[in-house]
Amino acid sequence: MTTRIIYADLHLFGPHAVEDCLVDQLFEDVKKYPAGTVVLLGDIIDFKNCRYKDLPAAHSLYARLKFAVQKRYYIEGNHECNKQFTFYLRYLNTLFEHGHMADWDPKKVEKWYHKEPGCSSRKWWMMRAVKWVRPLVSKVMSKKFTDKCINRMMIYTDVVRYICGHKHYNTVQRFSKICSDGIRREVICVPRGRSIIALED
Length: 201
Fold this sequence. Notes:
The chain is of the alpha/beta class and 201 residues long. Helix content is 31%, strand content 20%. It has 6 helices and 8 strands. A 5-stranded mixed beta sheet has the order 3-4-5-7-6, covered by helices on one side.
């Protein structure tokens, strides 16, 4: 049994960022546990919706995080806006990704990465106001999304578990099924913030 501490979708510096205290917790976890225990599952820094004036501070924290967890354990999401990103981590039979590569079609991915990071303070505050009108969470993982995740993991040999974030569910979501090749595959989608996931080796 292997335990992973997963941070996902913090959206730091964005209008919908989680509590700053989670950053302190993240660095404490990195110091406390062996390398590879802490996995950053993308959209940790929200470069896409970061105010222009905050971009230097965002880049500074981004560099500190990548150094702290070692580069390979920082899996970047769409909001990191990095065209040369580390988009997956494979550990034994488990594939870690942010989730947007499974969720989006290739054209949407390509279009997204042509956008430049940063936004005006006015736009930042407008997006922040939306948070109070429309909560940015969903309750249940859809069959459409789980099918996409299963198709994604079938690209890789011997992968039977797919762990992602991206969808902003409010609890850990799990789904498994026996596929056409007779192998049971599992999808685990973590909520925003910090999650502890126990995995069978």
